Amino acid sequence: MQFNNTEKHVGIGVPSSDYLDDVREMGALVAKGANVDGPVYSLGTTVNSPLVYSAEMLAKMMHAAQPEIPLRVVSGALAGATAPVTLAGALAMQNAEILAGITLCQLVNPSCPMVYGTFVGGMDMRTGKWVAAGPEMSLINASSAQLYQMYDIPLGYGTGGVTDCRVPDVRAGFEKGLTNLGAALCGVEVIHDEVSGLMAGGMDEHLISPLLSREYALEWPASEVEDIVFQARRRVQDILSSHRPPELMPEVKTAIQAVLTRIGGERVLF
Asked: What is the rounded distance in angstroms from the CA atom of residue 157 to the CA atom of residue 165?
């Protein structure tokens, strides 16, 4: 379904290594139909902290390395629970975990493209909860960016656009904004969670949001002022009613459906 609704690269999570060959086959069909030379998707694996790669994880990593499918090797250790409580200790453990995974893939195939990733954060000692929008994650993002740049790894993956708020209110907005800004200023290339994609390309020009107008503050509006929530809802409705993503070619859909049927019986997805 992802391939059928976007022209962008797709990051795929595969629940079982049993399906990796089928995913590769479907990816090759999409690439051929789009006349693309190279993989149209990437895979990811997250270390089972502290310092453990399961058999499933190892199978995914070795599978991705052989045909040079981009692979995200990510640590999500929790400082104070699955990692040392100090940020220096958590960072050292994260680095060992990620470098171990990258080394394995590079031993299988030195040309395999790799992504160094983190969503390491602190633990709330009162509840045991992962703290998403705390300063700990921003500091780890910054340190991780320095590490992958030192190792000359082309892509670094950090976490931003996150909040610990339970409702989408003002607090949620500023936590998401600050964690995104912090990750971008640190030099994180791929910001995971609420902003996906390379940030550097959008930083070379001034962007004007259709929701953030620039009227003169002292000029009385000609009509009733709409707040930003109303504008955002209307924008969502406009997109849902008018946006038509490009679809796969019929022959590609048929071939992918054959793969899905072979895996799990009659399931019509297109």
From this structure: 23
**pTM for this prediction:** 0.80
Where in the chain are the domains? 3-199+250-264
Which run of H or of E encompasses 11? strand 10-12
Task: Give which of 128, 126, 199 is closest to 160, Cα–Cα.
Answer: 199
Q: What is the pLDDT of residues 127-168, one digit of tens each?
A: 888 888 889 999 999 999 999 999 999 888 898 888 888 887
CATH code of the domain occupying 3-199+250-264: 3.20.20.480
For the chain, how many residues are written? 270
Please tell me whether residue 52 adopts helix, strand or coil conformation.
strand
Asked whether the bond before 50 is cis by omega within 30 degrees of 0, the reply is yes
Cβ atoms of 113 and 153 closer than 8 Å:
no
CA 15/CA 121 separation, integer angstroms: 24
**Is pLDDT of 107 > 80?**
yes
Contact 112, 155 (CB under 8 A): no
Residue of 83, 144, 91, 137 lying closest to 117 (CA atoms): 144
In percent, how much of the chain has pLDDT > 90?
Answer: 41
**pLDDT(201) > 50:** no
CA gyration radius, the chain: 21
57 sits in which H/E element: helix 55-65
